[in-house]
Amino acid sequence: MQLKALIVDDEPLARDLLRSMLKKLDDVEVVGECASGDDAVEALQNRSINLLLLDVQMPEMDGFDVIEEVGVEDLPPTIFVTAFHEHAVRAFDVQAIDYLTKPITLERLERALRRVREKLLMQTAQLTQEQFKTLLNSVRPASDPPKSYAQRFLVRDGDKEILLPVSEIDWIEADAYYSRLHVTGRNYMLRETITDLNDKLDPKNFVRVHRSSIVNVERIREVYREGRTDSSLVLKSGAVLKMSKQGRQRLVELGR
């Protein structure tokens, strides 16, 4: 079975290394390379790909954002390739076939590809949610304590730092490896990605309406639908934010 691979990594050397390894394998063809999440989404939507080698941490749009944009159900068999160990459980939660940490060896890569081939041959390239729940439960403690969410953030304000209550935030904007917190006409930079912040905020109060923005639901004034997939919302401050199809769905589910 011929594997048609897409390599996604913002580091040229990392892409070169993966390409050189894959060239040693007769049944793998590299059909594309992407240096950003945006390019990866476009390639996945327009090319015939049955193997995705995806970096986790990339500026502006990381690997998990790519999956969110494309949708797990439309994702080809995926192997995460990253220098960070801490994302492994989350990677399996979005149905990754394997999780490789850099530096990668050819032997370890071949082992991951064997799993991809097995899944394709069995027509079960993506593990079911039930299987992943079993996997996650096997690595979790017997009982998890209730998750707590951030109540305030330490941010710089001129030449000093202040503790900013989360409840005062209108919305949050992605800015590469930083996030910009918009608060009643002012904004503060925080050295955390929007994905990391999303995990720290209470989903009852904050919704990620777009890959580049999170909104405080108490600040929403109006929601507009613009066609089948495009939507936008207007905040009480007057700010207008784009909303993705997935973001609108999250807002709908919160309102139920």
TrEMBL record:
The keyword Phosphoprotein applies. The modification 4-aspartylphosphate is found at D55. Residues 153-256 form the HTH LytTR-type domain. Residues 4-117 form the Response regulatory domain. SUPFAM superfamilies: CheY-like. This is LytR/AlgR family response regulator transcription factor. Keywords: Phosphoprotein.
